[in-house]
């Protein structure tokens, strides 16, 4: 099961440049920066590799969608999240401004914690700004402060150097985690917390009384039929109690948060349960969240909840829903679907068995001889149709493939080695995937196929 990477959390007041820095370090434009204070960002998670080390970066500012006006509450929430989730805290300030009392207080509090803290002095776009940095920043007791500019990137290399230098001092994560990590994700109100309750209420489910030392305190560890599970908390479940109090105008923020927090859970899970409502049509949110599971190559189970609300069900009703689902999300044809009622606890225990099954498929290794046979068979099938050639303008080029190998599990990852990767028709790896699935199923798991040039 996937080893957890150390987590670095970026915190700081609104508008100090957290998401600009996040984008710079992750080299993505996934987070949306905006000169408007408090602009919501929905994606706030990235894996970073620097100096031979890997870590996960989170922009806790991306979590501040609810009380953006309430500065203190917002920053408190960030710090709480950071302290809970992170191994290192990168507290960011705007170096073009003078230090504000709140920052001072927070930094003092942070350095008292056992976790390493780096003060990132942002917006130092050139030497002139560097000279003008408020000397008060240095008297705060943080051992490490790095001036940088998220905007033009200067100093961000130094910042990364400091981060990876301090990371080994961070609390080591357990090397082998023997539990199957699950995430329940989905839009608000689909029944995630009801499902969580009914799973934990199952007769044979035993929730661990002793909190695990290295896991997030909100995650839930339990045992079912001699197998250990860890349910990764998502804000969507934990904050659920507040849902009723939120005003309608905040719904879009909540929806965004559903995607953001799902991403955290998805990244850390072995198997993801995407919860849908049987009586509702699929929404863009559902598609987005399922795409996150696919992009991150996690195991996926489609949980169609509230099945009790569908009247006069027959075998046809299932098939119609499955057909509707596949028409809308054709790229998820491999994900198993289960129809449940969290409320009536119908088939709830089966989803744990399904998760185990998916995990076995994710970890499946296909022997090389069988891959050789499969490749030969697919090439054989492919030839009559395309005459083993493809057309580039006038020229016809032979399709030559040296070998098909499996290079990893969880997710099953393969590579096709060919002297001329450019000549590989797009349809060919898809055909390989189709035959791999026909023979080995790979239930609920994405398959990756790389094309590599032979040496
Ligand atoms: P967040 O609220 O902390 O996530 O802040 P943002 O990343 O959205 O940035 C807030 C504003 O500061 C935006 O207008 C950015 O363009 C600007 N900004 C961010 N980093 C820098 C920087 O290094 N230099 C300058 N001059 N402006 C920056
Ligand atoms: P969450 O926001 O995804 O955590 O959703 P909740 O678990 O809070 O459920 C939202 C609403 O749907 C609540 O009123 C639940 O009682 C209801 N609900 C959840 N599961 C079911 C179900 O299987 N059947 C029916 N009829 N209602 C359900």
Q: Which small compounds were modeled alongside the protein?
A: guanosine-5'-diphosphate
Number of strands: 18
Give the biggest beta sheet: 7 strands, mixed
Number of domains: 3
- Bin the strand percentage: 15-25%
- CATH top level of the largest domain is Alpha Beta
Specify the number of helices: 13
CA radius of gyration is 25 Å
Q: Assembly state here?
A: single chain
Question: What integer is the average pLDDT?
Answer: 77
> For the terminal residues, how far apart are their CA atoms?
32 Å
> What sort of overall outline do the alpha carbons produce when their principal axes are compared?
globular
Task: Based on the coordinates given, report the CATH architecture of the largest domain.
Answer: 3-Layer(aba) Sandwich
Give me the secondary-structure category.
Answer: alpha/beta
Return the CATH topology of the largest domain.
Rossmann fold
What order do the strands of the largest sheet run in, or round the barrel if closed?
8-9-10-7-11-12-13
Q: How much helix, percentage-wise, in residues?
A: 25-40%
Annotated CATH homologous superfamily of the largest domain: P-loop containing nucleotide triphosphate hydrolases
* Spans of at least 5 consecutive residues with low confidence: 28-43, 63-68, 169-176, 210-217, 236-255, 384-394
């Amino acid at each position: 099961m996937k080893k957890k990477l150390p987590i670095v959390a970026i915190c700081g007041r609104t508008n100090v440049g957290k998401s600009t820095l996040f984008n710079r370090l992750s080299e993505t434009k996934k987070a949306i920066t905006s000169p408007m204070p408090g602009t919501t960002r929905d994606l706030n998670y990235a894996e970073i590799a620097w100096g031979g080390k890997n870590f996960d970066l989170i922009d806790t500012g991306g979590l501040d969608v609810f009380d953006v006006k309430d500065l203190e509450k917002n920053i408190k929430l960030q710090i709480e999240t950071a302290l809970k989730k992170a191994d290192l805290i990168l507290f960011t300030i705007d170096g073009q401004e003078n230090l504000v009392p709140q920052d001072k207080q927070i930094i003092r509090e942070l350095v008292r914690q056992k976790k390493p803290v780096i003060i990132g002095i942002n917006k130092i776009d050139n030497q002139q700004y560097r000279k003008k940095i408020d000397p008060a920043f240095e008297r705060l007791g943080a051992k490490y402060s790095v001036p940088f500019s998220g905007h033009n990137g200067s100093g961000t290399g130094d910042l990364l150097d400091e981060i990876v230098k301090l990371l080994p001092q961070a609390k080591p994560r357990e090397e082998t985690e023997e539990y199957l990590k699950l995430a329940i994700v989905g839009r608000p109100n689909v029944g995630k917390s009801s499902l969580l309750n009914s799973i934990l209420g199952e007769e044979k489910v035993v929730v661990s009384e002793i909190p695990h030392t290295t896991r997030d305190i909100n995650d839930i560890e339990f045992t079912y039929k001699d197998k250990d599970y860890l349910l990764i908390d998502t804000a969507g479940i934990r904050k659920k109690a507040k849902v009723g109090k939120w005003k309608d105008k905040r719904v879009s923020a909540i929806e965004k948060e559903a995607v953001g927090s799902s991403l955290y859970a998805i990244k850390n899970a072995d198997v993801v349960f995407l919860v849908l409502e049987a009586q509702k049509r699929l929404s863009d949110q559902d598609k987005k969240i399922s795409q996150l599971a696919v992009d991150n190559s996690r195991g996926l189970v489609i949980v169609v909840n509230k099945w009790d609300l569908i009247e006069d069900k027959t075998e046809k009703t299932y098939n119609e829903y499955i057909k509707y689902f596949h028409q809308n999300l054709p790229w998820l044809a491999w994900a198993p679907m289960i129809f449940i009622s969290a409320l009536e606890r119908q088939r709830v225990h089966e989803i744990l068995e399904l998760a185990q099954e998916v995990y076995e498929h994710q970890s499946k290794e296909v022997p090389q001889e069988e891959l050789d046979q499969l490749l030969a068979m697919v090439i054989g099938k492919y030839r009559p149709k395309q005459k083993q050639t493809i057309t580039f303008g006038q020229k016809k080029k032979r399709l030559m493939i040296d070998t098909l190998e499996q290079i990893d599990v969880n997710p099953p990852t393969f590579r096709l080695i060919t002297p001329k990767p450019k000549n590989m028709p797009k349809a060919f790896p898809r055909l390989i995937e189709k035959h791999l699935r026909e023979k080995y199923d790979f239930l609920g798991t994405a398959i990756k196929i790389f094309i590599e040039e032979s040496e």
